[in-house]
Write a structure and sequence with these properties.
Elements lengths: L1 H7 L5 E4 L6 E2 L1 H16 L15 H7 L5 H14 L8 E2 L1 H10 L4 E5 L4 H10 L8 E3 L10 H9 L6 E5 L2 H9 L7 E3 L3
Parallel strand pairs: 1-4, 1-6, 4-5, 6-7
Antiparallel strand pairs: 2-3
C-alpha cells in the first residue's frame, strides 16, 4: 500500500485516520474490559469467548446476555470504561497505518476522526505516544442519533472533501466518508 499511497498524497492532502481497527487494534482490550466489567457487575464468572470477527460492543452485550436489566447494562458499560486502562497493553498499533501517519504527520494535516469517546481515545493515544501526531482530533459526539464523523470533521474544519485521504476499516464508516463527499478512490481500506 505504501507505494500506492505515495502516488496519491501530495502536500495539500489532508489525511483522516480512524482509530479502532485502523490505527490501533483495540479488539482484545475492549473484549477483556467488557469481560471484567460483566464479571464485576454480575458477580460471577463470564463464559464469553473472544471472537476476532465480531467486536464486543454495547449492542452485542444485550444479545449475549439478554437477561440484563437496564441498570446492569449501564453499570457494565460504566465499569468497562473505568477498567479499560488495565488492558492498554493488549492494544496493538497497526503498523501499516502507523507508518503512514509517521511519514506524513510532519508535512500534512493529519486528523483523527473516531467514534471513540474522548477519555478512552486519549488514553489509547497517550499510551502509544500518538496524540501529538494529529493536527486535529474529533471524538464521538454523544447524541440520540448517529452523526457522520466525516461530515462533522469536514464542516468544523471548513475544508473541501476532494483534498481528503481516508484510512478506515469499517464498511459503514466508509459509506459515511463517501456520503460526506470524499472520493471513493481516496479511501484506503485497512484490513487488520
Amino acid at each position: 500500500m505504501n507505494s500506492n499511497i505515495q502516488n496519491i498524497i501530495n502536500e495539500d492532502s489532508i489525511l483522516f485516520f480512524d482509530m479502532d481497527g485502523t490505527l490501533i487494534d483495540t479488539d482484545m482490550a475492549n473484549f477483556l474490559s467488557y469481560k471484567k466489567a460483566i464479571e464485576t457487575i454480575k458477580e460471577s464468572d463470564c463464559n464469553i469467548t473472544f471472537d476476532k470477527n465480531r467486536r464486543l460492543n454495547r449492542n452485542l452485550l444485550q444479545t449475549i446476555i439478554p437477561s440484563l436489566s437496564l441498570k446492569e447494562y449501564d453499570d457494565i458499560v460504566f465499569e468497562k470504561e473505568r477498567n479499560y486502562k488495565d488492558f492498554l497493553p493488549e492494544t496493538q498499533p497497526i503498523l501499516q497505518t502507523l507508518n503512514i501517519l509517521a511519514t506524513y504527520s510532519n508535512r500534512n494535516i493529519t486528523v483523527l476522526v473516531t467514534n471513540c469517546r474522548k477519555d478512552r481515545a486519549n488514553l489509547i493515544l497517550d499510551y502509544h505516544n500518538l496524540i501529538n501526531k494529529f493536527s486535529n482530533i474529533f471524538y464521538r459526539i454523544e447524541s440520540t442519533y448517529k452523526i457522520n464523523k466525516y461530515s462533522n470533521a469536514i464542516s468544523l474544519l471548513g475544508i473541501e472533501p476532494h483534498s481528503i485521504i481516508v484510512f478506515e476499516n469499517e464498511k459503514t464508516e466508509i459509506e459515511d466518508a463517501i456520503s460526506a463527499g470524499i472520493d471513493p478512490s481516496n479511501i484506503k481500506i485497512i484490513l487488520n
